[in-house]
């Protein structure tokens, strides 16, 4: 049986907050060390407690050396030595994104064509139910929009009829005035 989910929010009780901080800090630092050892990765973690105390872990040399390495690498990415390396970077980025898009499109195509044949009756029924529910939601939204549009057109029609009636009454008054004063 797994652990229950907890709501992530500030712990109000000071003692409970300190105990949780201590346990989670130890767990985070342990995970950082394991990541470093298992994957031969350069890892640096800094934690400042609410009292301002610093806890850190650096897999190689010191946390300062890790930060310097980070700044050096990040600076090279943001400000490459020459513009051609920046162009190469963006070309690689575009190529990567195009590959990801192509892969997603292929996955999408498979799901809605080839792989339907490999689904069981139960899976097909579930997919059909989902599609019907989605279609029902789409129809309800369409009907809602159409009803709103109909109401809007009715209101406009009523306003136009009222304006027409007002203009008709004004015209009739104008004609009567001409007949009374003009004859």
Automatic annotation (TrEMBL):
This is Uncharacterized protein. Its main location: nucleus. It is found in: Nucleus. It comes from Kalanchoe fedtschenkoi. The keyword Nucleus applies. The keyword DNA-binding applies. GO terms for molecular function: DNA-binding transcription factor activity; protein dimerization activity; RNA polymerase II transcription regulatory region sequence-specific DNA binding. It comes from the Eukaryota. Residues 1-61 form the MADS-box domain. Pfam families: K-box (PF01486), SRF-TF (PF00319). One of its GO terms (cellular component) is nucleus. InterPro entries: MADS-box/MEF2_TF (IPR050142), MEF2-like_N (IPR033896), TF_Kbox (IPR002487), TF_MADSbox (IPR002100), TF_MADSbox_sf (IPR036879). Residues 87-178 form the K-box domain. Residues 87-141 form a coiled coil. GO terms for biological process: positive regulation of transcription by RNA polymerase II. Keywords: Coiled coil, DNA-binding, Nucleus, Transcription, Transcription regulation.
């Amino acid at each position: 049986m797994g652990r229950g989910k907890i709501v992530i929010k500030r712990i109000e009780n000071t003692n409970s907050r300190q105990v949780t901080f201590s346990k989670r800090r130890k767990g985070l630092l342990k995970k950082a060390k394991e990541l470093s050892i298992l994957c031969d990765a350069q890892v640096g973690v800094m934690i400042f407690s609410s009292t301002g105390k610093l806890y850190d872990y650096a897999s190689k040399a010191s946390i300062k050396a890790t930060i310097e390495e980070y700044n050096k690498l990040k600076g090279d990415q943001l400000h490459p030595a020459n513009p051609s390396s920046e162009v190469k970077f963006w070309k690689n980025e575009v190529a990567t994104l195009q590959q990801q898009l192509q892969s997603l499109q292929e996955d999408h195509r498979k799901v809605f064509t080839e792989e339907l044949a490999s689904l069981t009756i139960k899976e097909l029924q579930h997919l059909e139910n989902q599609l019907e529910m989605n279609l029902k939601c789409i129809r309800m939204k369409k009907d809602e929009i159409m009803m709103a549009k109909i109401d809007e057109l009715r209101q406009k029609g009523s306003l136009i009829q009222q304006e027409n009636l007002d203009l008709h009454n004004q015209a009739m008054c104008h004609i009567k005035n001409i007949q009374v004063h003009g004859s």
